[in-house]
Amino acid sequence: MEIVAGVHQLKIPFPEGISGDTNVYVVEGSEGSILVDTGWDSPDGLMAFIRGLEWDRLKLSDIQQIVVTHIHPDHYGLAGKVKELCGAKIAMHKLEGELINLRYVNFEELLRKVEVELASYGVPIGELSGFAKASLWLREFVSPELPEVVLDEGDEISNGAFNFEVLYTPGHSPGHICLREPTKGLLFCGDLVLHNSFPHVGLHPQSGDNPLGDYLDSLKKVQNRSTNFVFPGHGPVFNGLKLRIEDIVRHREQRNMDIINALNGDLKTIYQVATEIPWKVEAGGVAFEDLGIWDKRLAVRETAAHIRLLALQDRIGKIDKYGVSLFLVKD
User: Fold this and answer.
1) Sequence-separated (6 or more) residues with CB below 8 Å from residue 46
2) CATH number at residue 207
3) Which residue blocks in the chain are alpha helix, DSSP H?
4) pLDDT of 265
5) How many domains does the chain have?
6) Measured in Å, how far apart are the chain's first and last C-alpha atoms?
7) Backbone φ, ψ for residue 76 (5° rounding)
């Protein structure tokens, strides 16, 4: 549908068997259209994309630029196919471009790093291989393509009708970006801010040293900017950006307290802490043992991100023993 004049939203479904969809935006202009994110590379995803264009009477050939907010499969997967179909140039932050090969092409080294990392988090040996390989299925839904255009903070993207500034907003992914149209008060924010769920922020070999700290700084960067409409990667378009960010920050603060309470004067691994706090709280809460293996891995990584920030804030301490890290609350 056309959300505001010149901005169309297409919903691209997740692969069969997985609930949810990704918001893809086509922004029309006198110098061609800008496509913001693409969705998964699946037969259903490609069909939804083509039919969505037809429904809104948009021409595939008008797409001149594909801006990828970050290279997670649900935002980047179809980029290669769309480029092949219309010849558009792919643009993303330089850090995201540097991750593509290790994540989607020559991934064996990354897989080894992930297993070492998860072992240090205290994941039991019997679950370690399953945890490490839990994301391999994602590669099936990505057509990896390097960007022709690399972006950074302050760069500008225009199509004659919309003049976007690039905001570098790491945390959810190390090279995550948003596009802001200051004149019209529009913010295309990928997975930085979602209206009805809390974006995942996890510590892993490609996350950077302090992803949660980066994420909170990114929220501060956009919080007070004049914004009429927020166009997220999932869920509804909304306004009230500042209020929603306040909700997310409160959630992160509560998560810190959950972790501190779980430590409760004891030495524990990241895995142990993750098993003792609730997950999917926006859906009413789910116990760790009731999560699937992919969600368990996300939970462990998110716990690790919070613990890294708490350690940097000198609120908890760490002891390394036989390749496993143990944490305790400082007095």
Assistant:
1) 78, 81
2) 3.60.15.10
3) 43-55, 73-76, 79-86, 94-100, 108-120, 125-132, 211-223, 241-263, 270-275, 293-312
4) 81
5) 1
6) 55
7) -120, -15
List the structure tokens of 60.
Answer: 């595939």
Q: Which two tokens stand for residue 25?
A: 């935006």
Q: What is the radius of gyration, based on Cα positions, of the chain?
A: 20
CA distance 159 to 163: 7
- Closest to 297 measured CA to CA, from 72, 113, 129, 140: 129
Q: Is residue 21 part of a domain?
A: yes
Closest CA to 306 of 261, 268, 270, 330: 270
Q: Is residue 238 part of a domain?
A: yes
Question: How many Å apart are CA 122 and CA 114, to the nearest integer?
Answer: 13
CB atoms within 10 A of CB 243: 10
Do 13 and 48 meet the contact criterion of CB atoms below 8 Å apart? Answer: yes
Residue 194 lies in a domain: yes
Q: Is residue 304 a contact partner of residue 202, using CB atoms and an 8 Å limit?
A: yes
- 106 Rama sector, left if φ>0, alpha if ψ -120 to 50, beta otherwise: beta
Task: Identify the domain containing residue 46 by its residue range.
Answer: 2-103+138-247
Residue 262 identity (one-letter amino acid): A
Closest Cα partner for 251 from 228, 226, 222, 285?
285
178 inside domain: yes
Residue in the structure block whose two tokens are 């200051």: 182
Per-residue tokens: 67: 């801006």
Q: Given the structure tokens 């205290």, which residue do they identify? A: 122
pLDDT averaged per 10 residues in sequence order, the chain, 331 residues:
94 90 97 97 96 94 98 97 96 97 94 96 96 93 96 96 98 98 97 96 96 98 95 97 97 96 93 96 89 96 98 96 94 74
Find, among 2, 1, 3, 38, the residue nearest to 21 by Cα: 38
DSSP state of 103: I
